[in-house]
């Protein structure tokens, strides 16, 4: 026992005090590296947020103008909101200030400017005589527009960048505003045809927004690459026509874009059916 005790290290000093082991020193990590970057960012990007706020303000002022009976200015304010909506996305991509906050803020502004404002405009302008069917149509448009924006936010990362799924809500809003502007441009005073026409148009736009029909997207078009000369000439002719007959051309361009989705979808479906028939024909005895 004495020999074994002599081989063990003396853990207790002769003074009778217990000796504490030294803790290993850890490398100091800065707080910015320990915390996620998302928790450190508490501010917002100013430039795109200001344009989004301008979009929202135009939608609000459009509703006020509709209540006052100034339908032309209400339609023009929705058109101006569309300009702000295009600029804020371009500014965010140009300055590399895209954020989740900006996406959500932009969607909320779009609901007001391209959902509520056009619905109030078309209801007080053309759907009041329909009573229950009128406000149901306007409400359906708002709900489908909100669903369209929600689906866009969910599918933003997985969807193809070359096209949209369903009619974009800004295009649906401009279909309404272009109709109002063209109506007053042509001098339609008390024509009752707009009541039935707008009722059908509203339900059609609502159905197109929640559909799976693809629409062409111009957001990721590369304008820096070379294009054929005929595109320059076509653009010059288009600009000339817009300057000469801006109301008619604005309505025509928006109408063609709205109808382009169903037309291209129908042509693509018929083409796929013909290809399937051709593939199945050789296999038949």
Question: How would you summarize the topology of this molecule?
Answer:
Blueprint: H1 2-7, H2 31-34, H3 37-40, H4 46-67, H5 71-94, H6 100-127, H7 132-154, E1 163-165, H8 169-185, H9 193-209, E2 214-216, H10 229-244, H11 246-283
Antiparallel strand pairs: 1-2
Care to give the gist of this entry?
It is built from 11 helices and 2 strands. The protein has 285 residues and is mainly α. The chain has a two-stranded antiparallel ribbon with strand order 1-2.
Task: Characterize the structure shown.
The protein is mostly helical and 285 residues long. 70% of the residues lie in helices and 2% in strands. It folds into two domains: 45-221, CDP-alcohol phosphotransferase transmembrane (TM) domain (Four Helix Bundle (Hemerythrin (Met), subunit A)); 223-257, no CATH class. The longest helix is centred in the C-terminal third of the chain and has 38 residues, at 246-283. The chain starts with a helix and ends with a helix. The relative contact order is 0.08.
Q: What are its keywords?
A:
Four Helix Bundle (Hemerythrin (Met), subunit A); mainly alpha; disordered N terminus; 285 residues; two-stranded antiparallel sheet; 11 helices; 2 domains
The low-confidence parts are: 1-9
Distance between the termini: 101 Å
**Overall domain count:** 2
Strand order of the largest sheet: 1-2
At the fourth level of CATH, the homologous superfamily of the largest domain is CDP-alcohol phosphotransferase transmembrane (TM) domain
Question: Quick one: biggest sheet?
Answer: 2 strands, antiparallel
Content of β-strand = under 5%
CATH class wording of the largest domain: Mainly Alpha
Report the order of strands and helices: HHHHHHHEHHEHH
CATH architecture grouping of the largest domain: Up-down Bundle
């Amino acid at each position: 026992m004495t020999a074994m005790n002599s081989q063990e290290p003396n853990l207790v000093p002769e003074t009778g005090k217990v000796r504490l082991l030294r803790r290993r020193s850890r490398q100091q990590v800065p707080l910015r590296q320990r915390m996620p970057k998302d928790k450190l960012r508490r501010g917002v990007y100013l430039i795109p947020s200001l344009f989004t706020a301008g979009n929202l303000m135009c939608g609000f002022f459009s509703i006020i103008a509709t209540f006052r009976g100034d339908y032309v200015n209400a339609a023009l304010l929705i058109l101006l909101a569309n300009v702000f909506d295009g600029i804020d996305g371009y500014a965010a991509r140009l300055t590399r200030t895209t954020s989740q906050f900006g996406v959500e803020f932009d969607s909320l502004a779009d609901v007001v400017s391209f959902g509520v404002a056009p619905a109030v405009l078309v209801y007080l302008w053309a759907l009041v005589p329909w009573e229950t069917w009128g406000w149901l149509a306007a409400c359906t448009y708002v709900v489908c527009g909100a669903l369209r924006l929600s689906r866009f936010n969910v599918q933003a990362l997985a969807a193809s960048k070359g096209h949209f799924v369903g009619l974009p809500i800004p295009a649906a809003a401009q279909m309404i505003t272009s109709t109002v502007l063209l109506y007053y441009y042509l001098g339609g005073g008390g024509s009752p045809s707009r009541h039935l026409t707008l009722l059908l148009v509203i339900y059609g736009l609502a159905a197109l927004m929640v559909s799976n029909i693809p629409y062409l997207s111009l957001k990721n078009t590369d304008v820096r690459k070379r294009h054929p000369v005929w595109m320059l000439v076509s653009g010059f002719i288009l600009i000339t026509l817009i300057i000469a007959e801006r109301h008619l051309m604005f309505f025509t361009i928006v109408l063609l874009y709205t109808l382009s989705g169903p037309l291209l979808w129908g042509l693509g479906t018929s083409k796929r059916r013909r290809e399937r028939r051709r593939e199945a024909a050789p296999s038949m005895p």
